[in-house]
TrEMBL record:
SUPFAM superfamilies in the cross-refs: Actin-like ATPase domain (SSF53067)
Designated name of the protein: ROK family protein
Signal peptide: none
Pfam family, one: ROK
PANTHER family the UniProt entry points to: BIFUNCTIONAL UDP-N-ACETYLGLUCOSAMINE 2-EPIMERASE_N-ACETYLMANNOSAMINE KINASE, ROK (REPRESSOR, ORF, KINASE) FAMILY
InterPro entries: ATPase_NBD (IPR043129), ROK (IPR000600), ROK_cs (IPR049874)
Family per similarity comment: Belongs to the ROK (NagC/XylR) family.
């Protein structure tokens, strides 16, 4: 795919590379003068290990650099795993064999500055930039559930730089146990796996996420029940955020979040049912970038540099050159 992406600083004349490393896939976008000249998405092979997947990522990066015709000035990486300052994976519940492995190594031959950011955090920045919203919450629902908080045009990072872990807000204390060990985290309730399990239990037979999406499109009763279940739990989390950070807009994306088209409207209705009198509610809608908000955020990080994650004003233009 080629095209222009005005939400990620099209005035940048340098060669840039954006990479989104997720639990089930990796996506790459190479840009020259703000125009995408190479874009590829590939799924992690089911039979591979961390070493082979690292090799695959390295080869994919090399292909993207070749398409640019020269070394990129900067690479922005939206990462699902937690990565330390040296680029080593600290934790990755979906791919534990990566723990202790360098996520920087596959980029070593690129000749570029490599910057890492949380995938959902970067998605939130991209959504805020694309919508022109200075106060936004983004919720990404896929293999896991992540979030990004933008307040006053700046990323809300918190004392340790990792604020915005919306997937670990507890929405059902008696609910299923999350991989983090806590019961009832939003991630344990509305991730792709959790929604498929809920749909299967309601339907009475094993159900995939693709079948759930198709069931929602056909308004099957069992699928509608799961959709309402997800909307109610998401609204519980947003109810807290409305009081704490007062977002003007909420966007819902990620793989399964973007695929369930009626979900934002259903969430908005549930949220309105619990509104306090006289208190405004945010507009709730689908992510502008659909399932690709993290990749758009990685492109923004490549264009803007480390200041983007350090609290710089998202709407104050800076280039990579």
């Amino acid at each position: 795919m080629t095209g222009t992406y005005p939400s990620t600083d099209t005035g940048v004349a340098s060669r840039l590379l954006a990479v989104d490393i997720g639990g089930t896939k990796v996506a790459l976008r190479a840009m020259a003068a703000g125009v995408a000249v190479h874009e590829r998405t590939l799924r992690w092979p089911a039979d591979g290990d961390a070493a082979s997947h690292s090799d695959l990522l390295e080869a994919s990066v090399a292909d993207a650099v070749a398409a640019l015709g020269g070394a990129p000035v900067r690479i922005g990486v939206a990462a699902a795993p937690n990565v330390d300052a040296d680029g080593y994976v600290v934790s990755w519940p979906n791919r534990p064999d990566w723990v202790g492995r360098s996520l920087r190594a596959p980029f070593a031959g690129s000749g570029a500055e490599v910057l890492f950011g949380d995938d959902a955090t970067l998605a939130g920045l991209a959504e805020a930039r694309a919508t022109g919203s200075r106060d936004l919450v983004h919720l990404g629902i896929g293999t896991g559930v992540g979030g990004g908080l933008v307040s006053g045009g700046r990323l809300l990072t918190g004392a340790w730089g990792t604020a915005g872990e919306l997937g670990h807000l507890v929405v059902d204390p008696q609910g299923p146990r999350c991989r983090c060990g806590t019961r009832g985290c939003l991630q344990a309730v509305v991730s792709a796996e959790a929604l498929a399990a809920h749909a299967g239990a309601t339907r009475g037979l094993p159900t995939t996420t693709a079948e759930l999406v198709a069931g929602v499109e056909r308004t099957e009763p069992w699928a509608e029940h799961t959709l309402d279940h997800a909307a109610e739990r998401i609204a519980r989390a947003l109810r807290v955020l409305v009081e704490l950070v007062q977002p003007a807009r909420v966007t819902i994306g990620g793989g399964i979040g973007a695929a369930l088209a009626p979900l934002p409207g259903r969430v908005a209705r549930r949220l309105a049912e619990t509104a306090r009198p006289g208190r405004p509610l945010p507009e709730v809608g689908p992510a502008v970038h659909g399932p690709h908000s993290s990749l758009a955020g990685a492109a923004l990080l490549a264009a803007r540099g480390p200041s983007l994650l350090g609290g710089a004003d998202l709407f104050h233009e800076r280039s990579a050159t």
